[in-house]
Amino acid sequence: MAFKAYISVDMEGVSGLVHRDHVGRDGKDYEFSRRLMTLEANASIEGAFYGGADEVVVNDSHGTQRNLLPEFLDSRAQVITGSPKPQSMMAGLDDSFGAVLCVGYHARAGSQGILDHTISSQAVYDIKINGDSQGEMGLNAGIAAYYGVPIVLLTGDSTATAQAVELVPEI
Ligand SMILES: [Zn+2]
């Protein structure tokens, strides 16, 4: 059976991106950031194939969810783009996948990470599940767990990765 890897790519946790000017569609450095995001997506696609994936699906998960530059994206991957879409940052994930990779993720709202927030800093101050504060990774881990698919990787700043290890120690 084909081994399918699912990659959810956000933008705030991509290396080198630290400001609203980087990650907002109207930001001065947004076009530069799209290139870095696409390169980081390509690195994760490469890693997934190297790790044994037969198929790789990449979901553009940031903001309007149409940031990745398709002409520079590794053509071996399938890409899901645009919003709104069911399951949002986990659009298209189901139990046919063997692994989830979260790339370019950021820390939850109020936790002092780089560009930390949860979904929308205008609308969401905190989200608790069973009493514990969770960010986007926590919400998406719930969707992945629903389908029985392990999250094997999260990339982002040190606060984001510490929160990932706290939630999924074997990540
Ligand atoms: Zn984002």
Structural commentary:
By secondary structure, this protein is of the alpha/beta class. The protein has one domain: Rossmann fold (3-Layer(aba) Sandwich). The chain has four helices and seven strands. It has a five-stranded parallel beta sheet with strand order 3-2-1-4-7, sandwiched between helices. Strands 5-6 form a two-stranded antiparallel sheet. It is globular. Zinc ion binds near residues 10, 11, 12 and 62.
From the 3D structure, determine the CATH topology: Rossmann fold
Query: How many individual β-strands?
Result: 7
Query: Could you estimate the helical fraction of the residues in percent?
Result: 25-40%
Question: Sheet with the most strands?
Answer: 5 strands, parallel
The N- and C-terminal alpha carbons lie at a distance of 24 Å
The tally of domains stands at 1
What gross morphology would you assign? globular
CATH homologous superfamily annotation? Dipeptide transport protein
Query: What is the CATH architecture descriptor?
Result: 3-Layer(aba) Sandwich
State the name of the first-level CATH class: Alpha Beta
Kindly summarize this structure in a few lines.
This protein has 171 residues and is an alpha/beta fold. It contains four helices and seven strands, in the order βααβββββαβα.
Using brief descriptors, characterize the structure shown:
single chain; 171 residues; alpha/beta; Rossmann fold; 5-stranded parallel β-sheet; two-stranded antiparallel sheet; 7 strands; 27% helix; binds zinc ion
Write the layout of secondary structure elements.
Layout: E1 4-9, H1 20-23, H2 30-50, E2 55-60, E3 78-80, E4 99-105, E5 128-129, E6 132-133, H3 136-146, E7 151-156, H4 158-167
Parallel strand pairs: 1-2, 1-4, 2-3, 4-7
Antiparallel strand pairs: 5-6
The chain binds zinc ion.
